């Protein structure tokens, strides 16, 4: 009897950390659009998938800071491709959902191709109806979005 309760509890916990079909579909669609915008330097699309608190923070620092941050073609950080996204975790807290992805960051230079792992966080504040994205260093920098509850404690 105890093992039935234990298995039931385990299944409940496991299922509570997953997304439903509609949430998964929207996340996948938005993730692909975000990666396309980032990898192909589509600035307006890229900005539209950024966390609103990031956009506000960079805008409040002045036009030159905002333009430098989002000038994808000139920023060496964006002269490479993100691909091979692998789900690393899902965390939920009421309407807030955060999904952590590991991706390959292909640094293409004339001499070599260097693969580096980077982490991207997909964040929804409305139960998965819409998603925005933050890179790991922005997610971990609590001064950028102080009101954002970080569900991943890496």
* Percentage of residues in strands: 25-35%
Largest sheet geometry: 4 strands, antiparallel
Low-pLDDT windows of residues: 3-16
Total of helices: 6
Q: Total strand count, please?
A: 4
Compressed to H and E, one letter per element, the order equals: HHHHHEEEEH
Spatial order of strands in the largest sheet: 1-2-3-4
What does the radius of gyration come to? 18 Å
Q: Tell me the helix content.
A: 25-40%
Question: End-to-end span in angstroms?
Answer: 37 Å
Q: What is the typical, i.e. mean, pLDDT? A: 83
Q: Estimate the global geometry from the Cα principal axes.
A: globular
Which structural class matches the secondary elements?
alpha+beta
What does this structure look like?
- This protein has 154 residues and is of the alpha+beta class.
- The protein is built from 6 helices and 4 strands, in the order αααααββββα.
- The protein has helices at 2-16, 21-39, 43-48, 52-60, 63-69, 136-140; strands spanning 81-93, 96-108, 113-124, 132-135.
- Helix 4 (52-60) crosses helix 5 (63-69).
- The chain starts with a helix and ends in a 14-residue tail after the last helix.
- Mean pLDDT is 83; it is low at 3-16.
